[in-house]
Write a structure and sequence with these properties.
Blueprint (H helix, E strand, L loop, with lengths): L2 E4 L5 H12 L3 E6 L10 H6 L5 E5 L5 H15 L4 E4 L14 H29 L2 E6 L2 H5 L5 H21 L4 E6 L14 H8 L8 H4 L8 H4 L6 E3 L3 H5 L8 E2 L1 E3 L8 E2 L9 E2 L7 E2 L3 E4 L1
Parallel strand pairs: 1-2, 1-4, 2-3, 4-5, 5-6, 6-13
Antiparallel strand pairs: 7-9, 8-10, 11-12
């Protein structure tokens, strides 16, 4: 049975991804920074109820040494690591003029360096396996910017570039690397925002209600069921299709823009290592190899 390692998966988006992959038959390696993150939390029970194996691995993903040891432990426990989801992330918001160096560096370490750490060590495992899927969580903040989040936006923009680079480096080894850029999502992390900050994000949403909202979801079952993403320009790739190694059923993405119906559909290649995706121009992403960005 294939194994998926999801960082920052005790709660929020990471937990939703882990549970969805468990439903799809993956053994799950959960990760978070401390045992406390799993207290009063039934995510492990929910995953095991799907009939798969699940174990948690406590690790600070910003630590190169800790990640190296954790990846070894996951490999020893499950035998393979077939999917890596780089989901871990934090915010330390503040206007640039008031932001401290510590606030900036902390977000870079957790959000960006962790992607390097995990991709390097899990990538080595996948190269020996000659197969694997790496999924990075970017953000619309990395594509469009967001006041008060110069640190967060910078890390998420960096993840887009890292995704394309990893895809080019590892594609010939049978490994794909993709990114998903969600919009504003209600999670424990966003619960910390003030009412004014939340309202400012809500005011940017072009599609909130009505039939067009349904067009934001993928036409297939998968990641779109785990995450409700509200953004001005949004389309969601089915996570399940990204993970499957053969892409025997091509993945189609729907999108909606300012209440209009989807104008195009994207399609991944049948081989999973090379894909071309022509996005709506404002998506600002066109992939010519095995990297892919979904917003």
């Amino acid at each position: 049975m294939a194994t998926a390692l999801i960082t920052g998966s005790a709660r929020g988006i990471g937990a939703a991804i882990a549970l969805r992959l468990a439903k799809d038959g993956y053994n799950i390696a959960l990760n978070d920074i401390s045992e406390a993150m799993f207290e009063d939390n039934d995510i492990m029970d929910k995953i095991k109820a799907e009939g798969v194996e699940c174990e948690k691995f406590i690790c600070d993903v910003s630590s190169y040494a800790q990640v190296e040891e954790t990846v070894k432990a996951v490999k020893a426990r499950f035998g393979t690591i077939d999917v890596l989801v780089n989901n871990a992330g934090i915010t330390r918001d503040g206007l640039m003029a008031r932001m401290s160096e510590e606030q900036y560096d902390m977000v870079v370490a957790v959000n960006q360096k962790s992607v390097f750490n995990m991709s390097k060590f899990v990538g080595s495992v996948m190269m020996r396996q000659k197969s694997g899927k790496i999924i990075n969580l970017a953000s619309v903040a990395g594509l469009y910017g967001n006041p008060g989040q110069i640190n967060y936006s910078a890390t998420k923009a960096a993840i887009v570039g890292m995704t394309k680079t990893v895809a080019k480096e590892l594609g010939s080894r049978g490994i794909t690397c993709n990114a998903v850029a969600p919009g504003f999502i209600k999670t424990p992390m966003t619960d910390k925002l003030t009412d004014a900050q939340k309202q400012a994000m809500i005011n940017q949403i072009a599609i909130l209600h009505g039939p067009h909202h349904a067009a934001q979801k993928s036409s297939r079952t998968g990641f779109s069921e785990c995450i409700t993403s509200f953004s001005k320009l949004s389309f969601v790739m089915t996570f399940t299709d990204i993970f499957h190694s053969s892409f025997s059923n091509p993945c189609f993405c729907n999108r909606a823009y300012n209440g209009r119906s989807p104008q195009n559909s994207g399609r991944l290649s049948a081989h999973g290592t090379l894909c071309t995706y022509t996005c709506f121009p404002l998506c600002a992403v066109s992939c010519t190899d095995n990297s892919h960005l979904c917003v």
